[in-house]
Amino acid sequence: MNQEIPLNKPVNGYQDSYGPQAPVVPVKEWIIALIISAIPIVNIVMWFVWAFGGNANPNKQSFFKAYLLIVAIVFVIYAVIAVLIIATGVTAGLNSGMFNDI
Questions:
Q1: Residues 18, 20, 31, CA angle at the centre, nearest 5°?
Q2: I want to staple 51 with a disulfide (CB 3.0 to 4.6 A). Which of 7, 63, 64, 67 is the partner?
Q3: Which of the four pLDDT bands, split at 50, 70 and 90, describes residue 39?
Q4: 51: Cβ–Cβ under 8 A, 6 or more apart, which residues?
């Protein structure tokens, strides 16, 4: 008596709450995106085009928006670590008397 319900079909008269879905991005497009992402400078420009361009697949747009957000977070973390390392080095140099002769 176990009856399977087909996906994306109204059940008991209720409409699908997800609405229209974007087409699946084919593997070929993902491979092209990964190859372009390996090219310096061009990759950053294309990430913004794919993330905020109007005619890209919504799945691709969401992926590259998330990717840019992660890249920005990592960049900020690296910048904070670099500032801490430089500040520590300068402080250690000043405390050791390294710059007394200048």
A1: 105
A2: 64
A3: very high
A4: 61, 64, 65, 67, 68
Residue 36: CB atoms within 10 A of its CB come to 15
Residue 53 has pLDDT above 60, yes or no: yes
The tokens for 101 are 């002769």
Assess whether pLDDT exceeds 70 at residue 2.
no
Nearest in space to 25 (alpha carbons), one of 53, 58, 49, 64? 58
Phi, psi (degrees; rounded to nearest 5) at 34 = -70, -40
Q: Which amino acid is at 71?
A: V
Q: Which residue has the higher pLDDT, 38 or 91?
A: 38
